[in-house]
Amino acid sequence: MGYDFLKQKKILLVDDEEGLRKMVCSILEKEGYGQVKAVGTAGEALGLSASWQPEFAILDVMLPDGDGFSLLEEMRSFLDIPVLFLTAKGEEDDRIRGFGLGADDYVVKPFLPRELLFRIQAILRRTYKEENPLLELAFCKVDFERAEVVRCGEEISLTAKEYAILQALGRNAGRIVTIDSLCEAAWGDNPYGYENTLMAHIRRIREKIEENPSKPASLITVKGLGYKLIAKR
């Protein structure tokens, strides 16, 4: 899988300069990063972080409704993800504060596009190890390389949507994955209106992975929020 799976990580860019947002998004998309979203304010960033659950963030320090340091502190209350500060402020005190808050890197504007890419790649490689193609659940194993469930010696094929949903749940095993996030994983950038369809796919997944789909032990509903996959450690 290599860089391919790293390039599917969800990246959030927060910067008040529209031109810079477009440039960085273009750089990342041309390099193959498939899930990049950009906003211009701390308020937008917090809302998107809560609903979309990014896996990496690039934050500007100076924002129209706050600063990147305070934004990172608020994000840390519900997200534990790597962060790179991208800013015009290169003073030593700002760097120290950023690293003190747990930032992984600090790039000062203007920057070279290749340098930014290399720094992003380095952070993602350090943070996210190669995903295990086998996920062990209570009553079966999910083989992501073969897109199938192995239960009691039987091999059960997964559809493309079931695969996408299980992959999103597996990457976040033990954590709640919102309904919006699962819809987006399966249906892309326009996931709205698929909630009922998602429920139908969840039922079919349970029929494949659970001993008793009516009393699931692995794929748990978290009422009002989403779903959680319980994997063996």
How would you characterize the overall build of this protein?
Helix 7 packs across helix 8 and helix 7 packs across helix 9. 41% of the residues lie in helices and 21% in strands. It contains nine helices and 14 strands. With 233 residues, the protein is an alpha/beta fold. It starts with a helix and ends with a strand. Strands 2-1-3-6-7 form a five-stranded parallel β-sheet, sandwiched between helices. A four-stranded antiparallel β-sheet has the order 8-9-10-11, with no helix packed on it. The longest helix is centred in the middle third of the chain and has 15 residues.
Order of strands, main sheet, comes to 2-1-3-6-7
Give me the secondary-structure category: alpha/beta
Quantity of strands, as a count: 14
Contiguous helical run count: 9
Mean of residue pLDDT? 88
The general outline is elongated
Low-confidence stretches: none
Sheet having the most strands? 5 strands, parallel
Residues in helices, as a percent range:
40-55%
Write a compact overview of the structure shown:
With 233 residues, the chain is an alpha/beta fold.
Keywords:
five-stranded parallel β-sheet; four-stranded antiparallel β-sheet; 14 strands; 233 residues; alpha/beta
List the helices and strands and how they pair.
Blueprint: H1 3-6, E1 11-14, H2 18-30, E2 36-39, H3 42-52, E3 56-59, E4 62-63, E5 66-67, H4 68-75, E6 83-87, H5 92-100, E7 105-108, H6 113-127, E8 134-136, E9 141-143, E10 148-151, E11 154-157, H7 160-171, E12 176-178, H8 179-187, H9 195-209, E13 219-222, E14 226-229
Helix pairs in contact: 3-4, 7-8, 7-9
